[in-house]
Hints:
The structure is a single chain. α2 runs antiparallel to α3. This protein has 3 helices and no strands. The protein is mostly helical and 133 residues long. It folds into 2 domains: 15-70; 71-123.
Amino acid sequence: RGVGGAKMAAGSGGPAARELFAEGLLQFLRPAVRQLDGHVHAVRESQVELREHIDSLATELCRINEDQKVALDLDPYVKKLLNARRRVVLVNNILQNAQERLRRLNHSVAKETVRRKAMLEAAGGYPQGLPGK
């Protein structure tokens, strides 16, 4: 059965059909949550690297400005870099919060899967056609 068939079975069948649908839905969501978590982790790492580069560039600009015999006003550029750094830090904080929510969601999905498998086993095993553990 496709997803539509599972929906119909969940709505018209008994508890076993609803459990089967719930199990299928959990199995469907788990890889997506894990993949999204991996992408968020990669973006966070690149954000940290970008922030470090911005800090290094701002420091270098300040050093160049101090070493110049001709007065160059690099302060606006340093301010722009610091503003960009601040935005990177804000995005990183948002990503960190999203990753933590994803981690909790993944944990909940795993916990619910274990709970539902235990319920199915206690009810007399898996329904016909559903693979075991």
